[in-house]
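Practice problem: predict the structure.
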Amino acid sequence: MNMKRNYSKLVIGISVGLVVIVGIVLAVRSRQGKTEYETAVAEIGNVIELIDATGSIAPMAKIKLQPQVSGKIKEIEVSEGDEVVQGDLLIQLDAKDIEAQLWAQQASVQSARARLSELVAGPTAEDLALSQSAVETALARLEAAKSARTDAATALANAQKNYDNTLAKAGTLIEGNVAAFLSDFDDAAIVADDALTRLSSPLFTTDGFLVFTSSNSQAETDAVQTRSVAKSSLIGLTSEVASVKTVGTVEAVETSYGLVRGYLLDVKTHLEACANVLDYAIGIDSTTLASYELNINTALSTLSASIQKLQADKSALDLQQRLNATDITSAEISVSNAQASLSAAENTVTTSEKALAEAEAALALKQSGARPEAIAAQRAVVSAEEARLAGLQSEYDKRRITAPVDGTVTLIAAEKGETVQPSQVIVILNAKGNFEIIANISEIDIARISIGNPVEITLDAFTDDDVWMGSVMAIQPAETVVDNVIFYETKIRFEEEDPRLRSGMTADLDIETERKRGVLRIPSRALRAKNGGLMVRVLDDEVVKEVEVTIGLETDDFAEVLGGLKEGDTVIVSEREK
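Answer:
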């Protein structure tokens, strides 16, 4: 910033100060008459944050637009060759997450502002009646929630009882299936033993050979060999049945079923071999043959019936287990649903209790009226909510690639659905107009500057009365290092063309980064640090008092007051001893 610029700003600052600061160098003498105070009055006005910078005019060329954040392209609103004006939306990045937060924060700001208005206005008779009604409604809802919780607890107890009964019933039914299985195991063992030791034994000698001659040697061999296997299986069958009866569990029965069935099939195979060999019997009379055939057929029929009965027992056990599983699962779901209902009812009670407490507190507050500190605190809440909203709005705006100036779209270097990065050029504009200002902004200040910020411009080639207005048009994401200091190239457009402008002219810039309108403000020079906070000295009937204050936006000129002062308070800016 050159000397002329600094001097002219000083003159302007003094002249503005003469209007804003009331009672400059107000002589308030102490009892000793040795102190003069410079004072100012806390007033409603604007607080504007400015960043000073210097740049130079350069011919305006093609503008390369890069996103400030990475993201997926949701929509491309223009085509190459389209004429656009400043502010037109060119490309929209996906901003669903930010939009939801933005809407929620807008509601929070509206709520905070409404609350502040309510505190400032004070309660009316209608407000008190509504608050009383809100308390009564909240109380009724709490009672209803408690009743629903009691019903839910009863439903859970019933569901748990039904679950216990279902388990008991399932156990009883399975025990019945197991008992039937064990009884049929016993019967099958008896049938198999009778088939081998009584009904088929007359066909064989004690050495295991046939007592008659067969015309089919293979049939004879099969009958002899299968008898040996059947006898071994009978031993295994008897042992397995005795063992499973000792254990008596579902698992033991299911395991034994396969073994028992195998033993029985071995015996059946032998009986079938006996029936086959009788077809080829030689040397025995017809009466004896008929007796043998009757015995073998009887044994086969009885054994087959035992095998089928065991198969029926297995099917019945499997079916009962499936039915039990279905019943138990249904009972478990009922318990789970009842638990969820009880949890929801308890949450409703908690929420209702909180709502009642809030309604009662709101009624009490309206009945007592809002205190000054409550209003000041709510002002602070409004400012905080507005700041959060501004931050979210800024994040949302970063996902909207807009035309910084009037111009023509010459290139679109991305496609819908593509994910783009901050360093990626996605749109090129040919800007209308002749000149722009290029300024290097330090890394300390760049975070506070956004595209579209208004800029007041003066040129060293003209007087300070010649003022141009412009706006931030582009910020390069890549840094520039000069003498080990990091800068970011920033481009500013003129709002109106002027034939007097020339390339290379030095431009002094005041970039407006934030503006608070209609807020309580005091000169920043009145602030003093104390005990980790801030305070001001208030002059009241020539008595100086220290007052702690809460500050919002603070600039070199003014500070926004969120709490501690009221409009019209006189604060001390400086003092001197006479």
